[in-house]
């Protein structure tokens, strides 16, 4: 029989309509003699089933990711990918070429200074970006290439440069800004240098020590482990806010997770990386966990005072560079102190 348009007769087996039992049995019987057709049919069925399972798993994962993002403000997929990429760069530079790590530290510091200065400027502060960046580079580089006492001299010179520049710039502008505002601008400008470049320079001071690269890697691992433990425990069990006025997403359950993971990481790193007794690992894990938490809460206070959620959006899933350095910066000072205190144990 021809169709309504007068075309060729249609093969009922080529129709997209569902097959009846009789038609399906007839098709199976017709295909039974053709192994290639049977194989292709099975392959198509397996592919359809796999695609269905992948689509279902993806839908479930996206649903979970959206719930996590709604609760914590992070995109889990992007956060993991970017975190892994940064971790690979840090580990490779520390293990193989120290000066690459110095370049990485310098770049991260300057980006952090830029973010912080821009955020302060948006809040009404007068921050001079060029001297801030120049001074920050001086502090970081002298921490690696000069003796420690010269590094302190460079810190003093860099901070003085920022302060004097702001005072001279204000005198030239003469826009009637009040004395209190000018003093606030000067002090905040000095704070930028002490908070970001100086604390970051402690990592390069540590990495230049004999075996210091392993200490840098160890304290970074502990800080990241504590943050990961807090994140996982907070998402899974978080019920009681830790500091709701500072950071509403942080909970005491998350803090407990940070403590457990940080102590465990400290013990393992002390035994298998630093050559220290297990109890020294507890000290390392506990101290770094505390400084990392203080750094995290401290930056949250700064952002809340400035009325912003993140320092920038350069690192999707994380916020800005300074949002990732908040726990690392104060921990670098603690790690350097622990290096001087605990390294003699490796010789005993």
Automatic annotation (TrEMBL):
Q: Which keywords are on file for this protein?
A: Cell membrane, Coiled coil, Lipid biosynthesis, Lipid metabolism, Membrane, Nucleotidyltransferase, Phospholipid biosynthesis, Phospholipid metabolism, Transferase, Transmembrane, Transmembrane helix
What's its catalytic activity? Answer: a 1,2-diacyl-sn-glycero-3-phosphate + CTP + H(+) = a CDP-1,2-diacyl-sn-glycerol + diphosphate
User: Which cellular compartments is it found in?
Assistant: Cell membrane
Tree of life domain: Bacteria
Give, as in the UniProt entry, the pathway in which the protein acts.
Lipid metabolism; Phospholipid metabolism; CDP-diacylglycerol biosynthesis; CDP-diacylglycerol from sn-glycerol 3-phosphate: step 3/3
Which InterPro entries did the record assign?
PC_trans
**Enzyme Commission no:** 2.7.7.41
Kindly report the protein's main subcellular placement as a broad class.
membrane
Q: What is this protein called?
A: Phosphatidate cytidylyltransferase
Protein source organism:
Microbacterium awajiense
What lineage does UniProt assign to this protein's organism?
Bacteria, Bacillati, Actinomycetota, Actinomycetes, Micrococcales
